[in-house]
């Protein structure tokens, strides 16, 4: 367990040391073996069947899910007493990352092993777990999660599905339609959310074979075509009272807490997808010749390769840093704690903001990478025979499911301000200190002999900038700031990029002494390249928030703060990108 356990959002007002973050280079031999097993399974069994899966051979999907069960890949998050492995979140994220190369199959896997199974793990009774968990961990049964409805997506609590207690009190009668259910046509067990007496939002375990359960036709989707997505229709379905999951009226706890892990796991999965996409992009660039030479030799292509690698490095650093934060927190909870999973869920909920950051940053990173890989392929990127086209189509859903990126962006400052009002994080005090700091002389030039000194100084300034701009907006709008969505979205972009940048810098600082000179030079180039781009995004978002919320002298002060705190001069940036691009070209894949 870590010597210091950080609170959620604490990174904005404190400084973490390089030895206080978990990084991919810290994986144990056991974790690496699980990663290798997953990678081999995808390469040997899933990828050869990918075309069948894309054409919706769901028998093949079910078969492969059972193979996942045989390999232990459905047991990672499940308690040992129910046949699971109960491994840490870092291992769970590693499996999600490695399986992402399977395309649509990874969606079926994630839905089953994550939001399909975890509600039962966290909230199920002993009897419910004994009845269902072994079937799910073996792959004998497939799981699905039914929250969205035709008229309620982001507004999940606006669901209209109803549950009425029978006259004899033995069962609930469920009616309604659930929309966009992943694994809809292949699932044996659904976690269904409905309102008891049209008021109390509640979760139920519904078996596919219960009378009145039916599924609609497969949705005709833009991407992830090989995953089943259907409506689930409930027509007077009699669900035994023993299948109520959790407490009546407390379904929101299940829905939202499980989504925290779903968002986090999505971050790992899309990071893996980006690695596969970059590998296909650079291999094409090495083979494709124009004007008598490989297009990988041209600066325009090299810059794309470098930028993709830098973004993936930051994404990977962010995901596993967050895994370490959650694992450190969960390690403080003794297994004999009464109501262990209540405490466990609170431990995960502590990092709800960071889970939202992972979902937004990583999904948008993949969007960037997929777009660039299509561009590297040129006209062939638009042709189905080449993988770039599939990456591009499959990528798009990641910014929508597990809560749209807009909803997740709003959650970031919303969570921060709520915690500040509760006194859980001294945001107002730190904001006042940051405002006072504006009257002091500019900070000293960083010591170039210290690794990443310039980037660390930049991060310290960016945190001050967030506190100044957010503090000004909070002071102006007070409690009404919750309705100023444009301001909140801009503030969220500042926070997201600070966390990503700090994660990349801390990882690089930690691993640099372990690396060869060449690999160390490439990692340094990745960090400097990413920091340059992220800093530009932060400056733009901070200016936007300032213009949205202030005017006159106060606006001038805020704009001055943007100029001061985003000062960063990465001399040799072009050479950095060329070094990074050459490293990618030599490896013909993501090189770290």
From TrEMBL:
Matches recorded under InterPro entries: Acyl-CoA-dh-like_C (IPR049426), Acyl-CoA_DH_CS (IPR006089), Acyl-CoA_Oxase/DH_mid-dom (IPR006091), Acyl-CoA_Oxase/DH_mid-dom_sf (IPR046373), AcylCo_DH-like_C (IPR036250), AcylCo_DH/oxidase_C (IPR009075), AcylCoA_DH/ox_N (IPR013786), AcylCoA_DH/ox_N_sf (IPR037069)
Where the record annotates domain Acyl-CoA oxidase/dehydrogenase middle, the positions are 144-237
Whether Glycoprotein counts among this entry's keywords is no
Cofactor(s) essential for the protein: FAD
Question: Which key words are in the record?
Answer: FAD, Flavoprotein, Oxidoreductase
Query: Acyl-CoA dehydrogenase/oxidase C-terminal domain spans which residues?
Result: 249-412
Tell me the ranges covered by the Acyl-CoA dehydrogenase-like C-terminal domain, including all copies: 462-564
Per its UniProt record, what PANTHER family does this chain match?
A: ACYL-COA DEHYDROGENASE, ISOVALERYL-COA DEHYDROGENASE, MITOCHONDRIAL-RELATED
The record describes its quaternary structure and partners as: Homotetramer.
This protein's name:
Acyl-CoA dehydrogenase family protein
Species name for this entry? Geomonas paludis
- Lineage of the organism: Bacteria, Pseudomonadati, Thermodesulfobacteriota, Desulfuromonadia, Geobacterales
């Amino acid at each position: 367990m870590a010597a210091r356990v950080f609170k959620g959002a604490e990174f904005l007002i404190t400084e973490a040391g390089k030895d206080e973050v978990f990084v991919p280079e810290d994986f144990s031999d056991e974790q690496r073996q699980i990663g290798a097993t997953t990678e081999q399974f995808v390469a040997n069994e899933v990828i050869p069947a990918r075309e069948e899966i894309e054409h919706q051979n769901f028998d093949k999907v079910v078969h492969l899910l059972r193979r996942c069960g045989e390999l232990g890949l459905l047991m990672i998050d499940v308690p040992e007493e129910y046949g699971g492995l109960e491994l840490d979140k870092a291992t769970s994220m590693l499996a999600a990352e490695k399986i992402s190369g399977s395309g649509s199959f990874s969606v079926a896997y994630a839905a089953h092993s994550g939001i399909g199974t975890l509600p039962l793990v966290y909230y199920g009774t002993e009897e419910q777990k004994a009845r269902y968990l072994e079937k799910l961990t073996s792959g004998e049964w497939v799981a699905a999660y039914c929250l969205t409805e035709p008229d309620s997506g982001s507004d999940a609590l606006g669901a209209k599905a109803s549950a009425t207690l029978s006259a004899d009190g033995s069962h609930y009668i469920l009616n309604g339609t659930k929309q966009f259910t992943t694994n809809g046509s292949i699932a044996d067990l659904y976690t269904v959310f409905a309102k008891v007496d049209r008021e109390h939002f509640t979760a139920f375990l519904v078996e596919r074979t219960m009378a009145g359960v039916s599924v609609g036709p497969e949705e005709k989707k833009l991407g992830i075509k090989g995953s089943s997505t259907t409506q689930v229709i409930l027509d007077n379905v009699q669900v035994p009272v023993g299948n109520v999951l959790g407490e009546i009226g407390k379904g929101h706890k299940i829905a939202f807490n499980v989504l925290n892990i779903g968002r986090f796991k999505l971050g790992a999965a899309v990071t893996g997808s980006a690695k596969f996409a970059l590998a296909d992009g650079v291999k094409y660039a090495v083979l494709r010749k124009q004007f008598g030479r490989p297009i990988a030799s041209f600066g325009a292509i090299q810059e794309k390769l470098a930028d993709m690698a830098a973004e993936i490095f930051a994404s990977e650093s962010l995901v596993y840093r967050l895994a370490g934060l959650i694992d450190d927190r969960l390690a403080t909870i003794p297994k004999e704690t009464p109501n262990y999973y209540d405490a466990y869920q609170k431990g995960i909920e502590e990092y709800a903001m960071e889970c939202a950051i992972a979902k937004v940053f990583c999904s948008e990173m993949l969007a960037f990478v997929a777009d660039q890989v299509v561009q590297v392929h040129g006209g062939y990127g638009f042709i189905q025979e080449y993988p770039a086209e599939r990456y591009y189509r499959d990528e798009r859903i990641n910014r929508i499911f597990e809560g749209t990126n807009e909803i997740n962006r709003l959650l970031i400052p919303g969570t921060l301000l709520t915690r500040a009002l509760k006194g859980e994080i001294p945001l107002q005090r730190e904001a006042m200190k940051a405002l006072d700091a504006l009257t002091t002389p500019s900070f000293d030039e960083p010591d170039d002999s210290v690794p990443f000194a310039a980037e660390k100084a930049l991060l310290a300034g960016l945190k001050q900038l967030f506190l100044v701009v957010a503090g000004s907006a909070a002071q102006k709008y007070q409690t009404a700031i919750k309705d100023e969505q444009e301001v909140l979205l801009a503030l969220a972009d500042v926070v997201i990029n600070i966390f990503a940048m700090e994660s990349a810098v801390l990882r690089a600082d930690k691993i640099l002494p372990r690396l060869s000179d060449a690999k160390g030079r490439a990692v340094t180039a990745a960090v400097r390249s990413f920091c340059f781009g992220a800093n530009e995004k932060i400056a733009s978002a901070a200016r936007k928030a300032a213009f949205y919320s202030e005017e006159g002298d106060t606006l001038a002060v805020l704009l001055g703060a943007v100029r001061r705190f985003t000062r960063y001069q990465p001399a040799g940036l072009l050479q950095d990108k060329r070094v990074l691009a050459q490293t990618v070209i030599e490896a013909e894949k993501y090189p770290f």
